[in-house]
Amino acid sequence: MNPFAPARDFLDLTLQGHTPQQTSWHTPALQAQWLGHGLLQLTPHAANPQQEQILLSTGIHGNETAPIEILNSIINDLLNGALPLACRILVVLGNIPAMQSGKRFVDYDMNRLFDGAHAKQPDASEARRAAELEQAASAFFAAAPAGAPRRHYDLHTAIRGSVFERFAIYPFIHERQHNREQLAWLRAADVETVLLHSKPAATYSYYTSERCGADAFTLELGKARPFGQNELARFTGIDRALRERLSGHGTTATPDISGMRLFKAKYDIVKHSGEFVLHLADDVENFTALPHGMTIAEDVEVRYVADGGEERILFPNPKVGIGLRAGIVIEPASLD
Ligand SMILES: O=C(O)CCC(=O)N[C@@H](CCC(=O)O)C(=O)O
Ligand SMILES: [Zn+2]
Fold this sequence. Notes:
The chain folds into two domains: 10-246, Aminopeptidase, CATH 3.40.630.10; 268-332, CATH 2.40.50.630. It contains seven helices and 16 strands. By secondary structure, the chain is an alpha/beta fold. Strand 2 and strand 3 form a beta hairpin. It starts with 9 loop residues before the first helix and ends with a strand. Bound molecules: ligand LFNQLBSZ and zinc ion (ZN). Ligand LFNQLBSZ binds at residues 61, 111, 156, 158-160, 169, 201, 203, 205, 218, 315, 317. Zn(2+) binds at residues 61, 64, 156. It is an enzyme of class 3 (hydrolase). Pathway: Amino-acid degradation; L-arginine degradation via AST pathway; L-glutamate and succinate from L-arginine: step 5/5.
């Protein structure tokens, strides 16, 4: 039986904006619960209470389609029994109107609206959805057995190409250590570069890390392309690693993170006004080194100048809204 019929599957149903005829059903291996548009919870019948609780989100930016396709294919395999499920998961397809129109966002970048920031943009269509996604994450983790590890992988692709093709962003954490087992798993997923954020942010991964106690990551898995135009062969590492983790085989007792490239955020380049100018061409890739003394960007009363020769640029984007981050200057780091 296909619970999403006449839609093909969960993604198809979500893009069509339909509600399934049944919102809760069983397969021989699991219970599925459709919790709302783009929200699907799967619980294995034979759950070990100490097993991980994993939130998998994607489509927070509607044009970042490769991870949406990958996650949908994993869901299909869990539902049809081709892939065993060992842990309770919540799947979130984030910005559905933006996915339908192939855009990063409709009114406002959703990944700047979490941790309460939605209250400051009440007119943006994304504000209500960000509040819903916070609530979905909080309810999912609140219902987890005490002591079960909590994870959140927020899957993205980036606007620009990248010197290091795949990378993770580790939200700023308070009074916790960076989780080496998680880093080793990322390495096994071919994600060998990690940016350690240095301050709180209004992103979904910061929200679940800070408010839900999850080991949370924003994963940048390649370059953003429209549905159907992704070279899925470039995403086999994360596909394999997620499948292993969900079926209970992903953890390593002796985490090895040797050879991983670690960076930390030094400061944000902020677009303060319409006068903002970025002195980096459109084809400059993420992680490009910034020579000492180079003017990276200028705005009214501020010049951003590279210092020391070890700095690199991440997410340069002069088209962001005023007041938002137009790039991050990063530098090499080591673990605490
Ligand atoms: O390619 C870009 O310029 C942006 C890619 C992207 O969406 N990145 C995330 C990173 C989130 C974080 O800093 O944790 C974002 O900008 O929301
Ligand atoms: Zn994104």
